[in-house]
Design a protein that fits this description.
Blueprint lengths: L1 E5 L3 E3 H7 L6 H9 L3 E3 L2 E2 L6 E3 L3 E4 L5 E6 L1
Parallel strand pairs: 1-7
Antiparallel strand pairs: 2-5, 3-4, 3-6, 6-7
Length: 72
């Protein structure tokens, strides 16, 4: 599991995908989320504005790599 440090208390899912270099652009992040390719804490998430907090785990479906939100 890879730790991704954020400098705020929370971050939106689409912003997190860009921050963690999971998505290269906002458009790609939007696409991945809308297509149901992103899970948060093991559940498929389709809301771009989903608020993530420290300890949340994000992954892409079909990919074993997991990213945990941590505080910088």
């Amino acid at each position: 599991m890879e730790k991704i440090e954020i400098n705020t208390d929370t971050i939106n899912l689409d912003q997190f995908l860009k921050w963690a270099n999971i998505a290269m652009s906002g458009g790609e992040a939007k696409y991945l989320i809308q297509e149901g390719e992103v899970t948060v804490n093991g559940e498929v998430e389709t809301q771009r504005g989903k608020t993530l907090k420290v300890g949340d785990v994000v992954s892409l479906t079909g990919n074993d790599k997991k990213y945990i939100v941590s505080r910088g």
